[in-house]
């Protein structure tokens, strides 16, 4: 049976990739893509599906509970996939308030709207699902020899971002146990891929190489992250919706741990290779003199570590593997090459994101900013 999805944070990095994945795989389903279009939201990410009659864009803040209720009712939504969040750890250190507002109060506002429409008014008493998208950062940090995070690892968030996500995970759980809301949660490791906002490590390194700018490495660069190609995250959520047990949480990851400095060196090597093999890149990115000389690594610059910087995250995906049959399709080798190629081929996208001019494009195209 076809579904009607409300996808929050749909114009962000993972939300947009999820919508593109979903609409291709399930063309019969209707998708309401909701986003407040903060600095991280970019409606241009959804350009490929804008003309699809099963797609609707809603420029809405998740804090606006009456509007969310109206959307749920008017569109007969049966599934919420909740990505909307303030997501950048560095920003949560300098300006934590927005993280508490959106990630905690905003998630609660969505839960209240879902409870109101699906349970109190009995519109979809059992045939509904609230899927909450969370992060491995709620589990805190690991030493190099600790076992990876499992679903039973105690929460120990270390940044305001991680703490706000942890709080939202608990609220989602409580709405299941207290009100019977049909919830599921997935906690995923670091994602990478197309449409990743250029303030995050992988796109930052790629675009800085193209501008011949320093590649900043926090501290000793030995912070370890577990990287997953964004479409493999979408596949994991798809499986949780299809086969996951209501009320449960699933860790999604690809067993792919890398120290930050090693990722940066790998990107340098691959970008250098692209420049050596594709001569038109030399003309298109004439500023990238280090890459043209095959020396992108010379741009690496160590900077002061950020406060409370977690040393290692690693996801144990055994439960998702065994119960959902989850396996990522991209290896890191294929995923990182695809990602670099995407940034080299989509200069217009990241240039517009960086100079903010995509907002002009959006208002010309859709009459709003
Ligand atoms: N990026 C990762 O590696 C990663 C890993 C695991 C989990 N997650 C989680 O996945 C989700 C999406 O992450 P992302 O990297 O795509 O983030 P992102 O910052 O790229 O996108 C977030 C989106 O939410 C929107 N938004 C923010 N506040 C809103 C509000 N109040 N109302 C409506 N929309 C609002 C933004 O406009 C943006 O489009 C987040 O919940 C994050 O915690 C991210």
> Would you count the extended β strands for me?
12
- What percentage of the residues does DSSP assign to strands (E)? 15-25%
Backbone structural class: alpha/beta
Small-molecule binders: nicotinamide-adenine-dinucleotide
> Element order, helices and strands?
EHEEHEHHEHEEHEEHEEHHHEHHHH
Instruction: Order the strands across the largest sheet as they lie in space.
Output: 3-2-1-4-5-6-10
Radius of gyration, CA atoms, in whole angstroms: 20 Å
* CATH C-level of one domain: Alpha Beta
Average pLDDT value?
94
CATH architecture call of one domain: 3-Layer(aba) Sandwich
How widely separated are the two ends?
A: 35 Å
Give the biggest sheet.
Answer: 7 strands, parallel
Q: Roughly how much helix do the residues carry, as a percent range? A: 40-55%
Task: Write the CATH homologous superfamily of one domain.
Answer: NAD(P)-binding Rossmann-like Domain
Helical segment tally? 14
Q: Which fold does the CATH topology of one domain refer to?
A: Rossmann fold
| Model regions low in confidence, pLDDT < 50 over at least 5 residues | none
Shape: globular
């Amino acid at each position: 049976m076809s579904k009607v999805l409300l996808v929050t944070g749909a114009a962000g990095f993972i939300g947009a990739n999820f919508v593109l994945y979903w609409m291709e795989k399930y063309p019969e389903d209707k998708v309401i893509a909701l986003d407040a279009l903060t600095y991280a939201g970019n409606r241009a990410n959804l350009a490929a599906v804008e003309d699809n009659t099963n797609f609707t864009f809603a420029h809405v803040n998740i804090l606006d509970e009456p509007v969310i209720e109206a959307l749920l009712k008017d569109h007969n939504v049966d599934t919420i996939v909740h990505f909307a969040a303030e997501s950048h750890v560095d920003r949560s250190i300098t300006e934590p308030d927005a993280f508490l507002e959106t990630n905690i109060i905003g998630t609660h506002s969505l839960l209240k709207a879902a409870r109101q429409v699906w349970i109190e008014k009995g519109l979809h008493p059992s045939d509904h699902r609230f899927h909450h998208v969370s992060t491995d950062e709620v589990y805190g940090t690991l030493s190099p020899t600790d076992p990876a995070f499992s679903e039973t690892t105690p929460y120990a968030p270390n940044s305001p971002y991680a703490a706000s996500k942890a709080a939202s995970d608990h609220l989602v759980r409580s709405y299941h146990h207290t009100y019977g809301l049909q919830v599921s949660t997935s906690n995923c490791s670091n994602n990478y891929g197309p449409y990743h906002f250029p303030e995050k490590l992988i796109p930052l390194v790629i675009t800085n190489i193209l501008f011949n700018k320093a590649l900043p490495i926090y501290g000793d660069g030995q912070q370890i992250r577990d990287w997953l190609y964004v479409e493999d995250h979408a596949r994991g959520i798809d499986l949780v919706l299809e086969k996951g047990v209501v009320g449960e949480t699933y860790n999604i990851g690809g067993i792919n741990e890398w120290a930050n400095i090693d990722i940066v060196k790998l990107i340098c090597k691959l970008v250098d290779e692209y420049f050596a093999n594709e001569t038109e890149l030399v003309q298109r990115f004439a500023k990238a003199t280090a890459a043209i000389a095959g020396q992108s690594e010379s741009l690496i610059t160590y900077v002061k570590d950020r406060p409370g910087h977690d040393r290692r995250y690693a996801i144990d995906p055994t439960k998702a593997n065994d119960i959902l049959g989850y396996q990522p399709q991209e290896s890191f080798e294929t995923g990182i090459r695809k990602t670099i190629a995407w940034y080299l081929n989509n200069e217009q996208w990241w240039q517009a994101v960086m100079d903010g001019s995509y907002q002009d494009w959006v208002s010309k195209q859709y009459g709003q900013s």
